[in-house]
Amino acid sequence: MNTQEIAKALAAAAKQFPLLGEIHEQDLLDVVKWELGHEGVLDDFQPYAGHWTMATGPAAILHIISGNTPHAGLQSLMRGLLLKSRNFCKIPSAGLPEIGQFRDALPEELQSHVEISTDLPAQWIEQCGAIIVFGDDDTVDHFRWLARENHHFIAHGHKISFGIIFDDTAYESIPHAARDASLYDQQGCLSPHVFYVDESTGLNAHKYASLLAFEMEKFNQGNPRAQIGAQEAAEITGVRADYEFRSANSGDVDIWKSATGTDWTVIFDKDPTFSASCLNRVIFVKPLAKNFEESVAAARSHLSTIALWPSTPANARRVRGTGASRICRIGRMQEPRFTWHQDGGQNLAPLVRWIDWEE
Question: What integer pLDDT is reported at residue 100 of this predicted model?
């Protein structure tokens, strides 16, 4: 199959997975064109600077896919198929059904380019030319150690995200913020830990937190959080107890929580310093400091996405120096476009090898 045929098949399969958002055939061809210079450069030689060139993907790509967000794994697999590579998908021991379902939605020729296993067959390491890892820092370090010098190695390790409400006098962003904080139970790199509220525009961070709590409960009723282990539940209980104690002794802190269990928690904290959540739908709301870049400095080295309301050019320019690699609208945090530069880098270009031909 040529690139156009592959793109058409991938777009048709993607329509069956709403979590991928809208992906059209031309979107995929455009990614090839933008990153590699020509949408047909993976098929044959194309003009290039007075001579000719074409790109080839690795014979095989090993994808180490984490279980928290299938979205990232599916996008990585689609890129591997665009490059005409075989794709070895190492999924978590608990399984990740979306990967197999996506393979089954493909034409037979592309299905043969996808292998899935909860184990890691030794021959996969030997046969692959690239390793793409999604996981925590320990997982990345483990596979970096396994990789050989001739492997392309791309790591997507631990990342964190947050949102900023610059102006929203009608508090219209709150249902969208609740969705961002609840999807995937806050396990992914694109999940927010904190929402900052710019009170200089007339907003009130405490009020925002109380309204967000209502929407968190509403979202949870229709989309219950997954079951969690005793250790995770104990961690949430500990965080709640700490902030309940602080709330009883200070007007700078307040907390809202689900009536039963640990389904969701909203914490208002007047201290603007970035706070990392213990996840599983525990979200902080804080006022935005004038020197907000300093208040989020602790997150800079692992920062992925900043969501804005409203997401205007002016507001994007205000946050572009924070270290984030993606800026989006609140409500879209968990739905990056296929064209995004994941972790600030290109996705296809680092994997290809170029062949030049001079007439």
Answer: 97
CATH code that applies to domain 3-158+339-357: 3.40.605.10
Are 69 and 184 contacting, i.e. CB atoms less than 8 angstroms apart? yes
State both tokens at 66.
């984490």
pLDDT at 272: 97
Task: Decide if pLDDT at 353 tops 90.
Answer: yes
| Of the listed ranges 98-102, 272-276, 322-326, 337-341, the one predicted with least confidence | 337-341
Does the pLDDT of residue 190 top 80, yes or no? Answer: yes
The domain limits of the chain are 3-158+339-357, 160-324
Given the structure tokens 């939605």, which residue do they identify?
A: 105
d(CA 67, CA 92): 6
Rounded to 5 degrees, φ, ψ at 171 are 55, 40
CA distances from 223 to 30, 89, 172, 236, 339 (A): 35, 28, 20, 19, 28
On the question of pLDDT at 68 being above 80, the answer is: no
pLDDT category of residue 106 using cuts at 50, 70 and 90: very high
CATH for the stretch 160-324: 3.40.309.10
Q: Which of 16-25, 45-54, 196-205 has the lowest mean pLDDT?
A: 16-25
Long-range contacts of residues 345-350, Cβ cutoff 8 Å, at least 24 apart: 345/154, 346/35, 347/31, 347/35, 347/79, 348/31, 348/32, 348/35, 348/36, 348/79, 348/82, 348/83, 349/35, 349/36, 350/152, 350/154
Sign of CA dihedral 348, 349, 350, 355: positive
Contacts of 275 (CB under 8 A, 6+ apart): 193, 194, 267, 269, 284, 286
At 21 the pLDDT is 87
* 88: number of Cβ within 10 Å: 23
